[in-house]
């Protein structure tokens, strides 16, 4: 079976991890700091806070934004559930809006139609690695006084109008799960240009601990003293995993280039095949392709999916519209809310996409798709 996604680990990655294992710090040490600083340099953010997962990063970002009971978060249904559920966990009211017909990214016009001064956060997702229309979304968020969160789980290393993802929105979250563009095994990060948001993110992921004596309520308690002023959780990424991430960051350009080659090979090999629709890329973005989301037309998605799996191609579907999950259904959300997203879901198949794919494997996938659709 050709895997839909997988990590790429080399000897340098292994050496980086074993070096930390032989050292004095397994967690909350200097490698975490080095990893966060490298993320800042790559993303153009002024503060990056690493975390135990992409889901944790979203939870941290919403907490840093001050999301609490009754606040509205406007987001996309075409994403992994955590983009919405992490806001829900803080008591937010989730409003789903439809996606652009071509990119499957959140539609700025749909956001503008529903967002009000009661909206706390607008959260978009860089689906498949293609950045959201940040400028249009920032225009809406600034008009109503909301923050823009860019869920960049798919897109570390992408650029939008020449600017790196991580330097665009008020808050940006990354995921370093093994199938993502780089990995820390499990991990994520929050990036921001706002020092206050960055500090709030840091403290939330560090159990809320305050160690700055100038901010303490009881600064004379003793040199051991630390305080918790606001609720937080232990979402700290350990040095062992940060070491892997730091090594992987050095290879991100290589990963991006190979994924671009795979994407181009699919585009060429599947061009003109009837019954499928290939993904698009807008001229002002330079994506790192996390997914290759092919659309199967005429109601044949399940048939083609099953045929590809039977032919040894490990395809996947990304994603079920979030409000279709029973969690949201039980809260009163109903199907039919976002027709573009639902149509996209009904047609989408993610073909294998990762840096370890060989040209021969890509060609095998292309041939399998042609057989499955009868081309």
Automatic annotation (TrEMBL):
SUPFAM superfamilies listed in its UniProt record: PLP-dependent transferases (SSF53383)
Gene Ontology BP term (one): polysaccharide biosynthetic process
Modified residues (N6-(pyridoxal phosphate)lysine): 180
Alphabetical keyword list: Aminotransferase, Pyridoxal phosphate, Transferase
GO MF term set: pyridoxal phosphate binding; transaminase activity
Listed cofactors: pyridoxal 5'-phosphate
CDD domains the UniProt entry points to: AHBA_syn
Active site: 180
InterPro entries xref list: DegT/StrS_aminotransferase, PseC, PyrdxlP-dep_Trfase, PyrdxlP-dep_Trfase_major, PyrdxlP-dep_Trfase_small
Gene3D superfamilies: Aspartate Aminotransferase, domain 1, Type I PLP-dependent aspartate aminotransferase-like (Major domain)
Entry similarity comment: Belongs to the DegT/DnrJ/EryC1 family.
NCBIfam families per UniProt: PseC
Name by which UniProt lists this protein: Aminotransferase DegT
Species in which this protein is naturally found: Intrasporangium oryzae NRRL B-24470
């Amino acid at each position: 079976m050709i895997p839909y996604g997988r990590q790429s680990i080399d000897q340098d990655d292994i050496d980086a991890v074993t070096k930390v294992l032989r050292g004095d710090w397994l967690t909350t040490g200097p490698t975490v700091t080095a990893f966060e600083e490298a993320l800042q340099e790559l993303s153009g953010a002024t503060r990056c806070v690493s975390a135990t997962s992409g889901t944790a990063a979203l939870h941290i970002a919403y907490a840093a934004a001050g999301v609490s009971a009754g606040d509205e978060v406007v987001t996309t249904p075409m994403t992994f559930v955590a983009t919405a559920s992490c806001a829900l966990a803080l008591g937010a009211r989730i409003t789903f809006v439809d996606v652009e017909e071509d990119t499957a990214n959140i539609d700025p016009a749909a956001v503008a139609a529903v967002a009000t001064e009661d909206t706390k956060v607008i959260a978009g997702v860089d689906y498949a690695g293609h950045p959201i229309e940040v400028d249009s979304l920032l225009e809406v968020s600034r008009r109503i006084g909301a923050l823009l969160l860019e869920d960049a789980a798919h897109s570390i290393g992408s650029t939008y109008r020449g600017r790196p993802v991580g330097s665009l929105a008020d808050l940006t979250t990354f995921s370093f799960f093994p199938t993502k563009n780089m990995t820390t095994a499990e991990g994520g990060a929050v990036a921001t240009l706002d020092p206050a948001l960055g500090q709030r993110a840091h403290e939330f992921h560090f159990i809320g601990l305050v160690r700055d004596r100038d901010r303490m309520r009881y600064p004379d308690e003793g040199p051991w003293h630390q305080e918790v002023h606001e609720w937080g959780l232990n979402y700290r990424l350990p040095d062992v995993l940060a070491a892997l991430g730091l090594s992987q960051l050095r290879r991100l350009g290589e990963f991006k280039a190979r994924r671009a080659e795979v994407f181009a090979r699919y585009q060429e090999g599947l061009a003109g095949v009837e019954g499928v629709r290939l993904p698009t890329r807008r001229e002002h973005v330079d994506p790192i392709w996390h997914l290759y989301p092919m659309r199967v037309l005429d109601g044949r998605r399940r048939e083609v999916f099953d045929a590809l799996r039977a032919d040894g191609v490990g395809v996947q579907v990304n994603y079920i519209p979030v409000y279709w999950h029973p969690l949201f259904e039980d809260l009163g959300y109903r199907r039919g809310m976002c027709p573009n997203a639902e149509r996209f879901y009904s047609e989408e198949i993610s073909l294998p996409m990762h840096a370890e794919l060989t040209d021969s494997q890509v060609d095998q996938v292309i041939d399998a798709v042609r057989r499955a659709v009868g081309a």
